[in-house]
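Lab meeting, item 3. Inverse folding demo.
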């Protein structure tokens, strides 16, 4: 025994984060916990990828896997449910979070990993899956949650390790969750809505101005949405990017851990309705024009000032 030894979790798995943080809080000799991993990364290919049906690999996955797929934030900067769960466990996030196990894989055998205890993510848009069974996962730090499907209550539940699960049949419309404290007071809510039939591109540049030093970068986020901005997660869209002016296209890609398109090309296929283009400044001031287009969805242009 070593009663004076200090312990820290340096690379723990997301499925155990609630348990691990309780150890940190309850034991003064456990000084912290680092969940693996924050941001997804290239390499250790497919260790977090979930397979359906036949397992493609015990630990690493074969081509075309390129990323680990273990991140609480994916390759293009979007937060996964593991990010929201971690924030709740650490006391930094109070709002409930809804995630849905994909009904398009309902009934299939799932091969989970040490880094992924669920395949659920935040969407209620599953065209062609009407009537199929699924599980809605509600994450909350509060005492109880109540889930509503198209206005009908599916009952109140007490989250276990921050999660309450509801078995439902998919039907388009809306999911809404209300969270309650120990006295029954409403303290939070969240919702998901099914996307409509329309399809368009939406773009947003994270940087409006960058420096003319040949190194500065601007990130343009691309989403395939309906007219109300709800992401069309199951519709794949090939998009093209062209750059003119005071810079060049550095890379284009998605959060897909198994892409078959190069990051250094000028096109890619959306993954879960999203993509990202990255442009690099030149050495002269001016304007970078980034044109993003796709068949049937028109084109959009982002302008980045280089100074």
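The presenter then showed the designed sequence:
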């Amino acid at each position: 025994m070593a009663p004076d030894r200090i312990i820290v979790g340096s690379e723990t798995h997301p499925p155990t984060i609630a348990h691990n943080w309780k150890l940190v809080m309850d034991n003064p000799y456990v000084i912290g916990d680092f969940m693996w991993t924050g941001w997804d990364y290239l390499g250790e290919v497919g260790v977090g990828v979930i397979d359906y049906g036949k397992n493609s690999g015990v630990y690493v996955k074969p081509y075309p896997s390129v990323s680990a797929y273990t991140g609480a934030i994916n390759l293009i900067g979007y937060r996964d449910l593991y990010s929201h769960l971690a924030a709740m466990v650490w006391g930094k996030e109070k709002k409930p979070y809804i995630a849905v196990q994909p009904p398009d894989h309902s009934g299939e055998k799932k091969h989970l990993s040490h880094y992924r205890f669920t395949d659920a993510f935040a969407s209620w848009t599953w065209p062609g899956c009407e009537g199929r069974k699924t599980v809605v996962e509600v994450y909350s730090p509060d005492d109880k949650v109540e889930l509503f499907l198209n206005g009908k209550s599916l009952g109140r539940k007490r989250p276990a390790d921050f999660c309450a699960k509801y078995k439902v049949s998919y039907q388009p419309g809306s999911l809404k969750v209300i969270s309650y404290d120990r006295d029954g007071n409403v303290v939070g809510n969240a919702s998901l809505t099914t996307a409509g039939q329309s399809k368009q591109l939406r773009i947003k540049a994270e940087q409006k101005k960058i420096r003319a030093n040949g190194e500065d970068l601007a990130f343009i986020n691309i989403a395939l949405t309906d007219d109300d901005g709800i992401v069309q997660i199951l519709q794949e869209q090939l998009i093209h990017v062209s750059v003119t002016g005071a810079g060049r296209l550095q890379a284009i890609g998605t959060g897909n851990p198994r892409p078959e398109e190069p990051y250094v090309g000028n096109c890619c296929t959306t993954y879960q309705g999203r993509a990202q283009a990255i442009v690099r400044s030149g050495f002269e001031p001016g304007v970078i024009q980034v044109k993003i287009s796709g068949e049937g969805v028109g084109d959009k242009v982002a302008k980045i000032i280089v100074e």
